[in-house]
Amino acid sequence: MLPRSVNIFGERWKVVVKKDIGENCLGLCSYSEKTLYIKKQSEQDMLQTYLHELFHAMCGRTSMHQAPDWHLSLEEIVADKFATVLVENGVTFKKTKKR
Ligand SMILES: [Zn+2]
What is the CATH number of domain 5-88? Predict the structure, then answer.
């Protein structure tokens, strides 16, 4: 079960699970809405997507995008690997109230 919100360096972001968030899209990190959108999938896949989007949010919150040699394609790879290694190691979250 994903948390309903997440603290990202002192900012509370929403976590929203939706049936459809756009074609070929499993997750979306909206900096303007401070929301992580996760497509409804299996629990394991939603967790992987959530961690991937969380990494993007972390990059945004720490202004990593402003580094002169920052590449979005590299960010995608690192986001995936970050999510995979956490899922592999059984990351879990505290139980939150029902959605
Ligand atoms: Zn991504």
Answer: 3.30.2010
CA separation for the pair 98, 75 (Å, rounded): 32
Ligand 1 centroid to residue 96 C-alpha, Å: 25
Nearest to 48 by CA among 60, 59, 36: 36
How far apart (Å, rounded) are the C-alpha atoms in residues 64 and 71?
Answer: 10
User: Would you write out the chain's pLDDT as a tens digit for each of its 99 residues?
Assistant: 899 999 999 999 999 999 999 888 999 999 999 999 999 999 999 999 999 999 999 999 998 888 899 899 999 999 999 999 999 998 887 665 555
Domain residue ranges of the chain, discontinuous segments joined by +? 5-88
Question: Which DSSP string do the residues of 56-96 spell out, in sequence order?
Answer: HHHHHHTTGGGSTT--HHHHHHHHHHHHHHHHHTT------
Ligand 1 center from residue 84 Cα (angstroms):
13
Q: For the chain, what's the residue count?
A: 99
